[in-house]
Fold these 4 entries.
Entry 1:
Amino acid sequence: MITTPFTAADGLARVYPADHSDGTGLVWAHGGAFAFGDIDMPESDWVARELAARGTTVISVDYRLAPVPADFRGDMPARDGAHYPAGSDDMLTGWRWARSHADELGIRPDRLAIGGTSAGGNLAAGAVLRLGPDELPALVVLAYPTLLAVQPEPDAELRAKLDADPEADLFPRDAVLWMYENYLGGPVDDAPIAAIPGLATTSDLATFPPTLMVNGDVDELRVSGEHFAASLAAAGREIDVVFEPDTRHGHLNRPEEEAAMRTIERIAARLKTLTP
């Protein structure tokens, strides 16, 4: 039996076979504002290894990134990239590959989940909104996702936490809007809900699968996560939304923090519920 990670799906994905598989699987996407990050960063590689050690086979999708414009930052060179729907298409391809190869991967199709961190959480939620009713995952796992391009202002409690920790205040409204415009390659007006899942209505969410959402604590993106969670609840969907105390955005990218392992245990425990 293969126990070390290997490349699959014509180079699109890296598979992390489970140790002592319990039949669960997770198609996973890293974050990085749609334009950055890779499958070697901790919130991809470390997360996959930790979950595989707990019995879940993880398929990490190396999706196409949006471009880096010439005027983005002085110390960062411009880079070509691909706008929406490229990354979303790659998530769909990764998901469908995992489903079609579930047997050989030791995954029960009815125990296959999808998820991601930050922008990867957006890609996961957006992919679900594009799937047919017979393709839906058993579970959606969203870690500190970004789900709205025009982000509501944080409430007074979160605003006070951000003001007290300026280094954590990474996602003001204008920065988030720019991130989405760069991802889309133009204005966010009339963007499809698969690109901005937070715009989904209750009717759009009528068949959305059970969802676990773990938000950051001192993280302005938490606002869009909570908005989406409220929409899921209004649609009568199963949604478990929590925040990891005392965390800034991206804590799964910092395995040295205790909160990272707490979130791994949360995700692993929820995946275990998919087993009989």
Entry 2:
Amino acid sequence: MGSLLVGGLVFLFLSMATSIGLIVRGRLPDHHLNAESKDAIRLATAVVGTLSALALGLLIASAKSTYDNAEVEMRTAAARVLLLDRVMAQYGPETDKARQLLRELIEKRLSRGWTAETTDEPSAKALGEYQDIEAVQADLRSLTPKDAAQSSLQARALEVGGMVAETHWLLVESGKEGLPWAFLTVLVCWLALLFATFGLQAPTNPTVLSILLVCALSVAGAIFLISDMANPYVGLVHVSDAPLQSAIERLGKP
């Protein structure tokens, strides 16, 4: 589900909860909303409000951590690709084919996007990314070193190639994690209860209604950010591919 859709649904849900509170307020007897009743409602909702704030803070921290880790992974992947290319360049012209395959792999990654499905999805003209990585590794294993220096470079290239492959499979596995939907659903229910009590206690005038809608929009915006940052390679708030763009300019150079 898209992050904007999630945020929009949360805003709609909270607005409906507020409206229900306003409708119920107009139908309750006056003694149900006297000072003592409102004090009891405020005490009860304070507990839910505290829990909601803690849960929202945990979700934001988790999403930010996921986003920061993805940024580090992107820079690390670009550095490893460059290192692999330089090691192959030092080996000699025998690695020209493998270096070209490596460049094509990065170009494909930049054109296809960042989800696990798009990187591994084969098409009529292109293999999945994991097959491209394995093709580079196969070319490296087929080399016949002429001396100890080339043997050392071959071993180093295979080591770094394994790291590049490992980075790919980490992306595939982490791409399946996503948001803790059960946790998010409970949080939204708590928030809906809070906004319903706001509508239950609030006087019906344009100023109060406007403030409640702005608050609902603010909470929905926070949920949107959580959803978007939990999927750091897609969406409006996504990890920049600048490190790989910079790397591809250096690939293949002597």
Entry 3:
Amino acid sequence: MPQEIARYNGIYGDHQAGVRYDYLQSQLIAPRQRLTDWGLKPHLHGNLFQLFFLEAGRAAFEAPARAALITPCVVVIPAGTVHGFTFSPQVKGRTLTLSEGLLDTILQATPDVLVELNAVHVLAEFSAEVPFADLLALAQQIHAETHADLPGKQLALNGLFKLLFVKLFRLLHHNRRKAASPNRALHYFREFQKAIARAAPFEKKIADFAQELKITPVHLNRICQAVKGRTALQIVQAHTLRRAHNYLVYTALPVSEIAYELQFVDPGYFTRFFRKQTGLSPGAYRARAYQAAGAPAAAQP
């Protein structure tokens, strides 16, 4: 068990990549001449957004729970998400990886799409209006444009990505009730998410976040309820709980060290928060996760 969650600056296995604002990678997942399954161990990319287009073959996805995938499918993975894959030798598909900065620029005029894509999604059901073949064709066009040296390359890529993201959004969009000012509300929600990621757990009150956004706490809560059906505090708690889960399940760090990594004022505060949210102590939660995975439980301090 590693002491830290594997983190890559570029694509899987790449520690050295200097990720610039316009970072973009397109890769094939080709069938392999081997008898056993292979895969990508749980890891994360701090500032990279990824799409996996799986055309055929068996596959499983872990983020955080492990689940079998039905191909064809599209897997949406936002930056900072711990995830892993297992592939059969016959798996076929492709991946697109781009920087968060590039993603923000492409979708700056459509924050509703940006917010929707800021969560893990597995799309295995397609419609007549948005078949898998159309999504795969766009991914293939992006691959071709990425590896060509033609005039207007960036403009072409931006256009292809916009069309791809709109089609994904249409698959994800299930009669969401629109807020009175959806673009503005979704912009505030996106900025709230970024502020949560920058702050230590409960370092700031909801009123502090609202003040940074230049809105009232009541307005911030209404935005969070409209976008995610949760209060602002529940969203802060869920973010902290998700990070705690990643450390407990994917590293062997002692609970006291995890509390330090998460910037809690002391391990006791972290344990009380975690027990209140899950009904289990961090050590018991980790032991149950190991038992479910068939792994021996690590000793807890």
Entry 4:
Amino acid sequence: MRQATGRDDMTFLNYLDVSNAVAFGFFIAVWAIYTLVVDHSRLSKLGLTYQMNQQRKVWMQTLLRRDLRMIDTAIMAGLQQGTGFFASSCIFAIGGCFALMGSAEQIAIIASDLPLDGIRDRGLVELKLLGLMMIFAHAFFKFGWAYRLFNYCSILIGAVPMRMEADADSSAADLAIERATHMNIIAGRSFNSGLRSIFFGIAYLGWFLGPEVLMITTVILCIMLIHRQYFSPARRSLGATHPTSNP
């Protein structure tokens, strides 16, 4: 008969004290608020993502006037390859977390000799690793869906009539372009969501050093993402009438 231990009577929630719960809640809140502002608020139209969506529309309009569309198929292949790379990376990250789950007790023992407060308890280490796996799983599903949508977009691009046919039936050509553009924007949105999950997963690693570190890394990451979205050279180049070659 297996002897009961103190740990057997505990759940993962017992390892979340007030400081850890507050830090984790702060992390989730910042992620949710940032996503809401960047993707769904009025400020979204000032960001880099919105400006790139406008360029996707320009791309599709330019595609309609091209006689040969090999460059467009090459662009789509590049988008799919990049998405597939990140999806594969997420699978490796999830596998690494599973491997670490089996060594949680050894990690806690080693950390007990270090000046770290965040990874001294096996249960808390396992809880944090489980959260990290969920973040990378979320990123994987976003990348997987983006990959599929880019594939659909390739089919829709193939359905866009050639220039002479488009001149003969402009309404059908406009509808085909609208469909391909919308599909491309949705795919890009899913890709950006997956990439954002990876970024916040990096900030999440601060929790292994303690709840205070998690809050600090979350704030630092948010500042970096806001800068890239609204104040980076890339954003300024899209808003400039004559972008400089060395922003």
